[in-house]
Every structure is written in C-alpha cells, then in structure tokens.
C-alpha cells in the first residue's frame, strides 16, 4: 500500500516536473520568438555603426529629443553611413554625397524601389501612386508619365499658372494699403495657390481656392464646365489636407500607425479593429481615404467615358497615352490612374507651397538679396510682360540661385526612402535584401564641407561661376532626389516657383511680421511644414 502510494507520489512529482519544464520551455520559446522578431531586422545590419537601441522603441526617443536635426547629430557622431531604428525597423541612413550617388545611380538596379513606411502601408490610395509602386510596374508607369511631361506641355501651362498666381495675390493689395498694415499668413496663400495650380494641371479641375473670395464662397467648375457645389470642393480639399497631415512619421499618428512603428505585425489587425470603432483616429483616416478614393474614382470614370477630354491636364494625357499604348493599358487600370493623379495633388501642393513660402520668408530677412533680385526682375522688361517658359529657364539666373538656396536652407523633403532588392554592398557594409536605405538629403545640404557657413542664407553660393559651386560635389545638393527615381515634378515646380516670385516681387516686398516666432518653427510630417505658418507684412512697391 505504502509502496504504491510512493509510486503515485513519484509519478505526480514527475508529471509536475514535466509540466513545469514544458511551461518553462514554452515561456522560453515565446521569449525567443519575441526577441527573434524584435532583433531579426537588426541582425543583418548590426555591423553598420549606430547608437544603442531600446527594444520596441529603437531610436525614437532620439527623434523626440532632437527633432528633424537628429540625423545631422548622428552623422557627426557615426559618420556618413549609420543605423537608425524607427521602432523595430532599422534604417540605414546615408549622409554623404558620394554614397548617395552609389545608392541612387551606380547601384540603382539593386536598390530600385522605395521602402513603404508604416503610415502609408494601410492606404492603397498612396501605395498605387508612382512613389510606392515597384519594379516593372513602376518603370512602365514612369515611362508613360514622363512621355506626357514634354517641355511643350510645361510651356503650355504658363498662362494657367499665371492666372492662378494673379488671382491668388489680388488680395495682397488690400493688405498692403490698409492703414493698419495687416499681416498675412503667406503660407496659407501659397498652399491655396499651389493646390489650385496642380488641381488644374493634374485633374483639369479648378478648386477655386485662389479666388479673392473665401473657400466657401468660391465657385468652381469641374470638368466639362459643370458646376459642382462649393462644399464639395472645399470638402475635398479639407479631406486632402487631413489625409496629408495624418501621415506623420513620428509618434503622433493613429494608434495603428504607432503600433506599425513598434510592432509592425500588429498594425493591420489593429487597424481593421480600430477602424470599426467610432471616435478613433483610425476610423477617421479610413473614412477619409475611402471618401477621397471614391471621389477620385468618380472623376476618373467620368473622364474615361469622355470622348472629348482634350489634352490640357495630366489625367487626360495619361488616359490618352493609355489608350494609345497597349502595355500602359494593363498597368494603368482606373485605380492606378486615380492614385497617380491624387499623388500629383499631394506631391505637387505641399512641397511647392512650402518652398515658395520659405523663399519669400528668407528674402524678407535679407534686404541685400531682395534688392539684387528686384534689379534682375525689373531688368527683364515691362511688368505686364509675362515671361515664357524659355525666359524662365534662361533669363533669371539670380532668381534661380535664390530658389536653390531657399531649398537648401529649408529642405522640404529631407529624406528619400529606398529599399534593397538583393544583397548589396554600400559604403563597405554588406546589406541584406529588404534593407531600408534612406538618403539624408537634408544632412548633405547643411554639410560645411560642401556649403561653408551652412547656417547663412547666401544665394551666391550657387553662382555657376563662383568658386563654391565649382568645388562642390555634384550630388551634394539634391532636393529633388537622385537617379532614375528622382522627382518627375522638378521642372513643373521650378516653373511655378519662378513665375510666382516674379509676379510677387514686381508688385510687392515683404517683411517678417512682429507676430512671427524666431527662429521659424518646423513640423516633421511626410514632408516638412511650418508649425505656425509664415506671417509677413506686405508693402506695395511704388
Ligand atoms: C519643390 C517641389 C518638390 C520637391 C522638393 C520634390 C521632391 C521630391 C523628392 C525628394 C522625391 C524623391 C526622389 C528620389 O527618390 O530620388 C520626389 C519624388 C516624386 N515627386 Fe516630387 N517634389 C516636388 C514637386 C513635385 C511635383 C510638382 C510633382 C508632380 C507634378 C511631384 C511628383 C513626384 C513623384 C510622382 C515622385 C515619385 C517619382 C518616382 O518614384 O518615380 N513632385 N519628389
């Protein structure tokens, strides 16, 4: 009896031990899984130098501490190529002109695509544009788009651009003549202007934001002269702006976006749940995206069925190209057409508007630059003579230097995201397939090796006959990116910027408003933005 009791006890002890051991093993396996999940992306790039990482957060606390300057700070410490962990995801940051040439041009075939940051991965509207499409689909799309960007098309846009510029700046007369000398928030004016210009050029739609009336007063015509009601257009724009500003790269986005940064595997399931819960940011973003997509699809379908769509805007041109090229037809399905057209609105408005505002802001603080610029603009000819596309390219060399220097000073798109398609060596480090390689254009633009006294605003540093320009590395200043994947809108936006500045400075000069903070505060979204806007006092030239 006692013997069998002992046996029983022994078995129970054994069973308890076995289950204890298996529990311990299960816990250890889970821990190993979590650690493996957290450290797997790090492992492949561990040899690239970088600061110590915190599990889950990576180097996000450094981003919180230094803001947009974080990459300059780290480049000083770790050199031209270093690791930065966006949550779990390591980025290989390239902060050297020659290495940018290596990634963007010499090794393009191994690094042809962009990595898709977590805020974008939930939005098909953003993914189907040129920016995030990959490999052969991207090259077919890009070739078709480039074929519509002929110099003659750009030149034909001058009168359209000019008329929007004129109506956007009409109200400035009132502000400059008022005895109280009212200040204006110039950055709002420039966003309305840039959105209208690109709206017309991309969709053939007049959003009517630049008109002297307020947005809700503005009357707009969509397509074939059909009037649409005002709310619809301003609603569309508000949604567009909302959708843009929600694409944050830091920790202020929606819950699923934050999870995407920390534990990417959880992002999609959480997004699916959260978008069904009223009041969450995920629900709002989802609704906005759905709304935008269906409106765009509506415009696209209407234009597709329109036999007389003409060829004055990007959307119609793409459709014409699609019909004449067999390959493009299978690639440019209606959802992709909506996405690239919307992408134009997104890529063309915030960037150009930011650049225009920062140029005017910088000129306002530098009277010597202003008088040299005024002399060039006045010297061109009578003030009612609208420059042609050719004039803009060749007859305003100082204006070009001013724009370049403004873009260098406040680089609107300071990071360019790329991803390796196979194992490749960059800067002496072997990077596995799938590594995120980001080019730090903003760091290059402030590197004293290429730009002595980088904190000074000196347009003359871009004088083609000057010593500084001649000595500079050819890829030290690349605000529109580099190589086959560089910006397609470069000429478009330069044309718009030059026309706008010429028109403005023919009539006015500007001074910083006393209500403006110093130094200018910036916000780090998908592109750089002003935290509180650019406020200026307008003075009419006599
Ligand atoms: C001041 C204005 C602008 C700046 C600073 C700017 C900057 C950039 C940068 C840095 C890139 C990434 C390039 C790379 O990966 O190497 C890019 C790509 C792109 N930009 Fe712009 N951009 C501007 C205006 C525009 C405009 C007006 C449009 C449309 C008309 C546009 C459409 C695009 C598109 C579609 C791409 C993706 C190209 C591809 O992946 O093939 N951008 N832009």
Automatic annotation (TrEMBL):
EC number(s) stated in the UniProt entry for this protein: 5.3.99.5
Database matches in InterPro entries: Cyt_P450 (IPR001128), Cyt_P450_CS (IPR017972), Cyt_P450_E_grp-I (IPR002401), Cyt_P450_sf (IPR036396)
Sites where the protein binds heme: 487
GO MF term (any one): monooxygenase activity
Cited PROSITE patterns: CYTOCHROME_P450
Coiled coil: none
Gene3D superfamilies per the UniProt record, alphabetical: Cytochrome P450
Entry cofactors: heme
Name of the protein described by the UniProt record: Putative thromboxane-A synthase
């Amino acid at each position: 009896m006692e013997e069998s009791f002992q046996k029983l006890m022994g078995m129970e002890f054994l069973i308890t031990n076995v289950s204890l051991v298996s529990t311990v093993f299960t816990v250890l396996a889970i821990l190993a899984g979590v650690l493996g999940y957290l450290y797997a992306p790090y492992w492949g790039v561990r040899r690239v130098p970088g600061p110590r990482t915190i599990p889950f957060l990576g180097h996000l606390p450094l981003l919180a501490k230094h803001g947009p300057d974080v990459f300059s700070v780290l480049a000083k410490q770790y050199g031209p190529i270093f690791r930065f962990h966006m949550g779990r995801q390591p980025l290989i940051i390239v902060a050297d002109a020659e290495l940018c040439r290596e990634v963007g041009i010499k090794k393009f075939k191994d690094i042809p695509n962009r990595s898709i940051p977590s805020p974008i991965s939930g939005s098909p509207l953003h993914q189907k544009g040129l920016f995030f499409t990959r490999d052969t689909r991207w090259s077919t799309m890009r070739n078709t788009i480039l074929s519509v960007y002929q110099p003659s098309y750009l030149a034909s846009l001058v009168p359209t651009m000019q008329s929007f510029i004129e109506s956007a700046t009409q109200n400035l007369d009132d502000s400059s003549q008022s005895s109280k000398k009212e200040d204006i928030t110039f950055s709002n004016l420039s966003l309305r202007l840039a959105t209208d210009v690109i709206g017309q050029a991309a969709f053939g739609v007049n959003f009517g934001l630049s008109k002297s009336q307020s947005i809700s007063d503005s009357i707009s015509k969509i397509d074939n002269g059909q009037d649409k009601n005002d709310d619809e257009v301003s609603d569309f724009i508000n949604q567009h702006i909302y959708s843009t500003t929600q694409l944050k790269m830091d920790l202020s986005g929606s819950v699923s976006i934050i999870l995407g940064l920390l534990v990417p595997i959880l992002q999609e399931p959480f997004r699916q749940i959260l978008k069904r819960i009223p009041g969450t940011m995920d629900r709002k973003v989802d609704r906005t995206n759905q709304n935008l997509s269906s409106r765009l699809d509506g415009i696209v379908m209407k234009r597709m069925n329109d036999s007389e769509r003409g060829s004055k805007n990007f959307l119609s041109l793409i459709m014409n190209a699609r019909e004449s090229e067999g390959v493009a037809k299978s690639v440019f399905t209606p959802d992709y057409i909506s996405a690239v057209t919307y992408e134009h609105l997104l890529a063309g408005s915030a960037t150009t508007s930011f650049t225009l505002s920062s140029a005017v802001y910088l000129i306002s603080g530098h009277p010597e630059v202003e008088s040299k610029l005024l002399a060039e603009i006045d010297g061109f000819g009578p003030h009612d003579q609208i420059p042609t596309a050719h004039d803009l390219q060749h007859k305003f060399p100082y204006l070009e230097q001013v724009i370049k220097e403004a873009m260098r000073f406040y680089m609107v798109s300071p990071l360019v995201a790329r991803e390796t398609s196979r194992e490749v060596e960059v800067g002496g480090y072997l990077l596995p397939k799938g590594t995120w390689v980001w080019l730090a254009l903003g760091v290059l633009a402030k590197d004293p090796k290429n730009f002595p006294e980088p904190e000074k605003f000196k347009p003359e540093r871009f004088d083609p006959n000057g010593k500084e320009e001649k000595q500079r590395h050819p890829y030290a200043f690349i605000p529109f990116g580099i190589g086959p994947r560089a910006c397609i809108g470069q000429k478009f936006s330069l044309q718009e910027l030059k026309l706008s500045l010429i028109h403005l400075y023919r009539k006015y000069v500007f001074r910083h408003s006393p209500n403006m903070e110093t130094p200018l505060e910036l916000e780090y979204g998908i592109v750089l933005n002003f935290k509180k806007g650019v406020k200026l006092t307008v003075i009419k030239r006599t």
